[in-house]
Amino acid sequence: MIRTIVVDPHAPSHLAFKEVDAPQPKPWEALVQVKAVSLNRGEVSDAKNQEISSRPGWDLAGIVIEPAENGAGPQKGARVVGLLPMGAWSEQVAAPVSLLAEIPDKLTFTMAATLPVAGLTALYALRKGGMLLGKRIFITGSSGGVGLFAHQLAVQSGAYVVGTASTEEKAELVREVGSDEVIIGYSAISSASKFGPYDLIIDSVGGNTLAALLPQLAPQGICVAVGFSSSNTAMIDMKNMVTSGGRTLYSFFLGEELTRQSAADDLSLLARLVTDERLIPRIQVEAPWTEIDTVARNLMERKFTGKAVLHLD
């Protein structure tokens, strides 16, 4: 038996511990002893609507204790980072080797656990803009996990980057990761136009923010919608979109992206960047996984920025 975190509607954050049977890997899966996991707002929010005893969790880092039967992927004893569609918040997981990457010895499990969902989302969203050297990029949700990774990767690509923050304190954090300009307050999003037009917009806010940003796209520009933290609906000025021509609104879902790109290769890339100190995860909270309830509630109440990592003993 192993311990895992499950959905429990009676818990304050809808998350609780439960003992379950140890996983039995399929031939293409490796058995991983999990050492650290990170939290994302999406999975914590989704837990409130899932069936009782469902097993949430996407990001993980740990050690392979049983390699895949088909011989592919990391071997026994390898230190790895990976992700699952669900169930990563467990002492042990059976993970497809296509979603696992070995990490350098210098990279801690804590750092590695921040990379899968936030890092891959930032990387893949930026790739929608093609070659970024000299281009103008606007990023909302800049002080969150995806935003902070996206800023660092965009700056390294030679782009001119404009970010957002809700307070001056958070704005300073965004400047520290290389943003050229920071717009403070989502209500002032229209003022972003003085730094545009933008070749690429990465938006995680949705609602009125998304609607206000679309007219700020340059000809042939693309807006990648990666979330909708403020509202899941937006009133779009279709006349502006149609008569301007050439602008694209791209709906981004990481699960769909992973059907066309190699998570293992790209996780290896992100891990190397962190090891070389070219990419720095901003970890705001570290705690034992027994504190999942408190950390999850604080995450949803936006009491911290950056990433939260939980350690498994």
From TrEMBL:
GO MF term list: NADPH binding; oxidoreductase activity, acting on NAD(P)H
Domain of life: Bacteria
UniProt xrefs under Pfam families: ADH_N, ADH_zinc_N
Keywords: NADP, Oxidoreductase
Protein name according to UniProt: NADPH:quinone reductase-like Zn-dependent oxidoreductase
InterPro entries per record: ADH-like_C (IPR013149), ADH-like_N (IPR013154), ER (IPR020843), GroES-like_sf (IPR011032), NAD(P)-bd_dom_sf (IPR036291)
Domain Enoyl reductase (ER) per the UniProt entry, residue ranges: 10-310
Transmembrane spans: none
